[in-house]
């Protein structure tokens, strides 16, 4: 082979290699986060399943989701209780079963809010003090308050369960009876 043929073969090889390379990535549209439209909501928890548990909670959107604060009372001293957002804002059944299952718009398995895959409505357990009261201060990430998005918790129910959530059992963490229920209502 003459040197001009070797050079031509090298140019063709480089050209063919370039044709087989991965094209540059296409620009991706920026993800626009869904934002809350309500400035505040409240939930007045009433007893369910013949319990004495009740409370009043305030819900305020923040940069990561919704911040829930307030007080729940009527629990047993030092009781650990499951706490979740449920799919329907209906507390009419005596056992609060009318609130439906855990709020789970993404179809995730049940789990712990602070680690791994979980329902959007899964929260860490409540821990009562020696008087059976809980000062609630929880941040629920990746949910919104108002606006009607799939992640919107306005109009849904907050449920306190009789037992601790084990964060493993499907579909609801084996947290037992529903002992308090309150609808999340936007404050106007």
UniProtKB/TrEMBL annotation:
Entry-linked Pfam families: Sod_Cu
Coiled coil (UniProt feature): none
Purpose: Destroys radicals which are normally produced within the cells and which are toxic to biological systems.
Family matches, as InterPro entries: SOD-like_Cu/Zn_dom_sf, SOD_Cu/Zn_/chaperone, SOD_Cu/Zn_BS, SOD_Cu_Zn_dom
Reactions that this protein is recorded to catalyse: 2 superoxide + 2 H(+) = H2O2 + O2
Protein name: Superoxide dismutase [Cu-Zn]
SUPFAM superfamilies: Cu,Zn superoxide dismutase-like
Metal-binding in keyword set: yes
Organism this protein belongs to: Stenotrophomonas rhizophila
């Amino acid at each position: 082979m003459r040197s001009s043929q070797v050079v031509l073969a090298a140019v063709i090889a480089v050209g063919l290699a370039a044709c087989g390379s991965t094209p540059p990535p296409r620009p991706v549209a920026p993800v626009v986060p869904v934002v809350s439209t309500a400035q505040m909501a409240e939930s007045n928890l009433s007893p369910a399943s013949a319990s004495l548990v009740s409370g009043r909670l305030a819900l305020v959107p923040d940069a990561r989701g919704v911040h829930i604060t307030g007080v729940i009372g009527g629990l047993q001293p030092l009781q650990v209780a499951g706490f979740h957002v449920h799919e329907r804002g209906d507390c009419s059944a005596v056992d609060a079963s009318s609130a439906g299952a855990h709020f789970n718009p993404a179809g995730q398995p049940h789990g712990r809010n602070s680690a791994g895959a979980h329902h959007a409505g899964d929260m860490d357990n409540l821990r009562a003090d020696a008087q059976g009261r809980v000062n609630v201060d929880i941040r629920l990430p990746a949910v919104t308050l108002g606006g009607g998005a799939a992640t919107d918790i306005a109009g849904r129910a907050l449920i306190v369960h009789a037992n601790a959530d084990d964060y493993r059992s499907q579909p609801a963490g084996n947290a037992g009876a529903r002992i308090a229920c309150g609808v999340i209502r936007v404050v106007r």
